[in-house]
Structure formats: structure tokens, C-alpha cells
Amino acid sequence: MSLTGFQSVGPEAITKVEIPAANEWRFEVDLESKLLVRLIHGNAEIFGTELARGMEYEFTGQHAAIYTYKGCTIEYAGNVNEYLADTTPMTIFANLHFALEAQRSQAQSSLAASASGPRLLVVGPPNSGKSSLCKILVSYAVKMGRYPMLVNLDPKESVYSPPGGLVAAPISHILDIETGWGSSPASGPSPLHPKQPLVYYYGLNNIHKNPKHFRESTELLATGVKRRIAEDKHVRISGMIVDAPSALTDGSDSYESCEKVVNDLGITAIAVVGNERLYSELTRRFTGLTVVRLPKSGGVVDNDDTWNRKIQRLCLQQYFYGVPRQPLSPYTVTVRFNNLTVWRVLERGSGENYNDYLPGGGEDDEGTQTEEEVLTKIEPSAILQNCVLAIVNANPGDPANIVAKAEVLGYVHISEADETRHQAKVLLPVPGGLPSRPLILADWQYHE
């Protein structure tokens, strides 16, 4: 039996670090390395979730920080870039949490049946720490016994779903320290309480590639969120934390998508991270909302596209094969091409004519304009090989506008597409046959 964790390394490979009060220990570990950490003395947290004293944590492919309010001692082993920082925005983030908590308490004491907690939209430029702030605020809310609704609108992020999905999930238990948000039945295994997300598949890596599809998917997600909030008093009082993609406020579509998100989700406040000009612009545009400016943490790392693609590949791998502590055994089936119904998400720029993507320039046989579509049906072929497709809750014969509005049931991977035999090998996360449902092809591939 092989040794694991700190037992697998010698005492000389273990380093002890004293973290002073109100300081954080920042670390960067790549995908080919492994970092082991354990808390020896004091109290500490990662993105708002407390570390258990004496428990070993394993990190791979992460840029994070261990923060302590009163000081602590940790031990670590592994190949990692690390340093101590005495300047952090954690006190400011904590004050924001207290302000949100005050609004929750006010909603809880209100006699109005429809009283609800704060609905915060977090925006900012790329690599500004938006997702880190959302994790902290959600974790702090859970510590207070709240059930905040988390909404992720960034299709490049893998929050309770492989990349491409727009996700909403009420959070009632602590987040997973090792993986960040943790996982769900739509993203893979988890030793913690699984989340039950609502997922709609946008499928592209930038919201400007098909803004119409993004806005429609956001509206559908908002409808589901509002329904859950109306039925669950705990979630309604706890409010909502919305993690927005940087493209939502880059001005490319004159902030139309941002305004729609604010209206659809009933946003009451906006937090702008690391951009004074954006703060000024949103303060001018949203005069009826509270807009706050927050500093960018010095520990935020500027991740390039190569790093982001590696992380997305890791998330896809974990969806099918699990994680080291909880592996999965996916199931492969062979499916005939004529038993597959495949749609592809159309890519459009915000300034382009949508009808140009339709046959005949958007006119039917009688010369009249047809309804704008966001999907196009394709014939199964070798183009599907190595692609990850979303299974949606619709019927194979449904038209594009119905398929585009269907929620995600799960994902499959086409490991082989044989045009000679007209069949494909499909990797499923669970045993059984491929459901008779439409599949949506988009930007993401996975090469085993």
C-alpha cells in the first residue's frame, strides 16, 4: 500500500510558515505539480472557507491565498511559488459582507412576505478577482446560516458545470477548499454536499460571439432563479451573488447586455472590482442602484489563454473521470449517426446582421423574413470527434428555438466519429444508453 499526503514526503521536504495576523500566504501551483497544505495552529481560510486544523489539503492548478485574521501556522510540501503579503483587501471585502448581511437581517425582520435580500452583481476587467470575491461573499453568507443564490454568467468558468454553461445554484453548505466552488451532478463528484444547479448552455467562450443567445439564456436562467426565490424563503432572504464575465461591461454593445442582466435578475447593487472608469460609467448609468468600488487584490494573477484552456480541459477531465480522492469510471457506447440529433451554436458579432447566417439571407421560399435562430442543425460527421456536447431537455424533433431554450441534463464526449461506418463512440459519465435528446455542439473539445 503506497503512502499518500504528507506521509509520502520526507521531513526535509516539509516547510513551516508563520502567517501574521491580517496577512495572507499566496501560492501558485501549476497543473503538473501538487501542493500539500495543513493548518497546524490558529485559524485560517481560503476564499472565506475555513481550513480544518490538522487536515491535509491537496492543490493542483490553482492560484490562491490562505488568509488569517489573528495569525496562524501552516505546513506545506510541493513545488510551488509562494510568498507572504501584508496588504490585502480582505477587510474591505468583510465590510461589504457585513453590509449585505445587514440587508438580509432587515429583509428577515420585515413583515412583507415578498421581502428579499440583496442581489449583488460583481463586474470588472479580466483577471481582477471577481470570482474570488464571489467565493468569499458566498462563504461568509453560508457561515451566517444563509442560503445565497450563486449565479455564474461567465461561460469560460466551470462553476458546477463544464465550461459553456450559465449556472444558478443556491448554496447551503461550505465550499470545497481544494477545488474552489466544489462540484455537482452536472460537473463531477464531490465528497461534500452536492449542489443542484440550473444550467443553460450558451456554449461559446465569449458573450459577444452570439449576444442574442446570451441574453435569451440569461433571461431563462433568471426566470428559474426567480421561481426558486419565490418558493424558498431562506434563499429569498439570503439574496443573490452574480459573477459576471468581463465582456459584460467592456462597452462593446453599449452595455445593453449588462442592463438586461440587471433587469432580468432584479439586481439591487453592483460591485466594481479594480476599475475606476467602469465604476464611474456604471454609477452614471444605474442611478437607482448602489454601485461600490473595490480594489483589486495584489495576489490576482494575470492568467493567459493557455492557462485558461488547461484549466477548462482539467474540468472536462474531472467531469468524466472524477478527482483522485473520488474517481469515476465513464461508460462508452457506440451510436449510429442517424440516432444523433446535433445542433451547433451560431457565432455572431454584436454588430452583424443575424439573418446573414440563415439560408437565403434569412428569407423563406416566399421571400419573407424568418425568425432569428441561435442554433443550426448539422449532420453528424468527423467534425464531432473530440468534441464535448451538451444534452438538453428537449425532444429530437423540436425546432431550434425550443432546443436553445432547454435546460442542460448533462454532457457527453465524442471520442471517435467514423464517417465510413457512420457511427460514433460516445463517452458517458454514467452507465447506460445515450438518451434520446438533442445534443448541442459549441467551442469546447477534450483530447484524451
From TrEMBL:
Sorted alphabetically, which InterPro entries does this protein's record hold?
AAA+_ATPase, Clp1, Clp1/Grc3, Clp1_C, Clp1_C_sf, Clp1_N, Clp1_N_sf, CLP1_P
- Relate the protein's function as given in its record: Required for endonucleolytic cleavage during polyadenylation-dependent pre-mRNA 3'-end formation.
Family per similarity comment: Belongs to the Clp1 family. Clp1 subfamily.
UniProt name for this protein: Polynucleotide 5'-hydroxyl-kinase GRC3
Kindly state a single biological-process term from the GO annotations of this entry: mRNA 3'-end processing
Which HAMAP family has this protein been placed in? Clp1
The answer on whether this UniProt entry bears the keyword ATP-binding reads: yes
Q: Which residues form the AAA+ ATPase domain?
A: 116-296
Could you tell me which PANTHER family the record lists for this protein?
A: CLEAVAGE/POLYADENYLATION FACTOR IA SUBUNIT CLP1P (PTHR12755), POLYRIBONUCLEOTIDE 5'-HYDROXYL-KINASE CLP1 (PTHR12755:SF6)
Subunit and partners: Component of a pre-mRNA cleavage factor complex. Interacts directly with PCF11.
The UniProt record gives the binding positions of ATP as: 24, 127-132
A GO molecular function annotation here is:
polynucleotide 5'-hydroxyl-kinase activity
> What keywords tag this UniProt record?
ATP-binding, mRNA processing, Nucleotide-binding, Nucleus
| Compartmental location | Nucleus
* Principal location: nucleus
Is ATP-binding one of the keywords?
Answer: yes
Q: Which Gene Ontology cellular component terms are annotated?
A: mRNA cleavage factor complex
Q: Pfam family of this protein, just one?
A: Clp1
